Amino acid sequence: MIPRIHRQGSKTLGLLNYLYGKGTHEEHIDPHLVASFDGMAPDPGRDPSVTREDLQHLLDQPLALLDVDQRPDEHVWHCSVRAAPDDPILSDEQWGDIARRMVAATGIDPDDGTGCRWAAVRHADDHIHIIATLVREDGRRPDHHRSGKRAQAECRLIERELSLHQVAPGDGTAAKRTTSAERHKAEREGRQQPARDELRETVRRAVAGATSEEEFFDRLAAAGLLIRKRAAPSGDPLGYKVALPDNRNGDKEPVYYAGSTLAPDLSLPRIRKRWSGDNPGQSADTATGPVTSSQASARRRTAAAAWQAVLVIDNGEDGQVAAHIAAAGEVLDALAKTSAAHTRTELRQAAAVFERATRSHVKAEHGRDRALRQAARDLVYSGPALGRGEYGATTAMAIDMLIFLVTAAAHWHAKKEHAQQAAAARRAAEHLRTAYRAAADAPLSVLYQRGLRLPQPLRQKQAAHLRAAVPELAEQILVEPGWHALAATLTDAETAGHNPARLLAEAAGRRELGTADSISDVLVWRLRRMSDLPADATTMANHLTSAAKASGLPVSPAPSRDNRPRQTR
Q: How far apart are CA 164 and CA 28, in angstroms?
């Protein structure tokens, strides 16, 4: 249940006209009162003999007690309370009780008999609006300081008592929500999302891996945004605003949004702090410039950087952890921007959701997060990747490790009691799991088929390596569908000159595996990255067949063409 304290106004009748009107898209159905300050206010919605002016005069009567020069310019208080989409439809009586609790909790009408006059209007199943006049019966102003936080706290109590969807409490670091006017405008113009959300996403992607203001603004311009810079007398930029070229106001002028209004960490000073760890003796390009490489190599380095970040989140100081979590957001943005179509939607959703997890009241100490930010930069400069072959397989490898990174961030936030951030990270992990299944299906199916083709003695040999390396997990792994892919990977590693048991023990010991949905999948990607094996195993098949024949072992016939059994990660 979300309460929202709107900006104070000066026209009671104007707000009543909106509440009792049809709405921008005629979405207001059966507007009517569910509660009022005395329980007897006239209802212009259901009583044809009553007008909106009648209700306005009743609510504003306390103003008449004051001299004209003592009346507040903005005396209209407005609060909306909205239920979650999956909540049951509440009755008028329940909404009336919620309204009375909200005005009491916020100080508008406390239980002392000297409150303000107010009325609660319902014109939809899922929410109400409360309108009040900010002058008490005794002519004094109400004490409604910090009414937003007080309303949030009361809603948390209501959620528990009515068994409604429980919203994680906020901490003031979230990005500003889109307004109803912005959402309605997007619907009218056929936009997929409001301009504010589209701009925030575009600016976030421009930040990902950038190392200078020039590069950042160049990326914004390349994305097609209109840019206004606010400069000091010296000419140095102090801030910026961006607009979509086709998002205009009534005067046909572009609607600009300051970076700080898109999200707290998208102000220019906050963006600059991300580069604060760069060596001042080097230019941005030479210090952390893009590494010329293929898309596959960039994804391998992303997986390696994500692994190092997991260790920092598990064991680092709070400031370092906050910086790495913020940098992880850049990596997700960059990966979403450059991945193939079959994973792009889920990766974009993961990046959008995880954005909330990148901000908290813990001050980020940038500098040691350069490996992650460099990974984001490499992804951007390596360009879009295909979903096939080594490109698709290394995407799965990177996502696999990013799931661990995002999950570690969720655990850290939960320990710090950052409820919204922890919830956002958990939702991002779910989107990543879906993207992982799409990316990993083809390469793991190849490994699964190759594992089935291995001669029985060779499979038994790899099972022995498994039992020697991870005896506590071996039997669980052996019954997983992914065991065949892991057996093929162990064979690849041995063929490449590695000790399978030693390599497996090292891979398993890097972090706990008990919470993984598929331990074998995790070990496959760790082993292939650690031993520098191709993520796409197709090129290894002929070599392994030759090796088996040279050793005198029979080669198993090819199994059926059925794909590897699907499993959740």
A: 23
* Angle (nearest 5°) at CA 49 between 65 and 116: 30
Where does 125-255 have alpha helices with state H?
Answer: 147-162, 180-188, 195-207, 213-222
User: Which residues in 418-556 belong to E strands, given as ranges?
Assistant: none
Q: What pTM does this model have?
A: 0.77
Angle between helices 389-415 and 419-453 (to 10 degrees): 140
Helix (H) or strand (E) holding 12: helix 12-20
* Tens digits of residue pLDDT in 284-338: 333 344 444 588 899 999 999 999 999 999 999 999 999 999 999 999 999 999 9
- C-alpha to C-alpha distance for 448 and 159, rounded to whole angstroms: 48
Model pLDDT for residues 2-56, shown as the tens digit of each residue: 899 998 999 999 999 999 998 766 678 899 999 999 999 999 999 999 999 999 9
Strands (E) in 189-330, as ranges, are 226-231, 237-243, 257-258
Residues 6+ apart with CB under 8 A from 304: 529
- CATH topology for 2-162 is BirA Bifunctional Protein; domain 2 (3.30.930)
Question: d(Cα 459, Cα 466) in Å, to the nearest integer?
Answer: 11
Q: How far is CA 216 from CA 195, 205, 271, in A?
A: 20, 10, 9
- Single out the residue of 60, 188, 63, 68 nearest to residue 131, CA to CA: 60
Q: How far apart are CA 45 and CA 34, in angstroms?
A: 11
- Residue 85 binned pLDDT confidence (cut-offs 50, 70, 90): confident
Domain boundaries, the chain: 2-162, 189-279, 286-440, 445-550
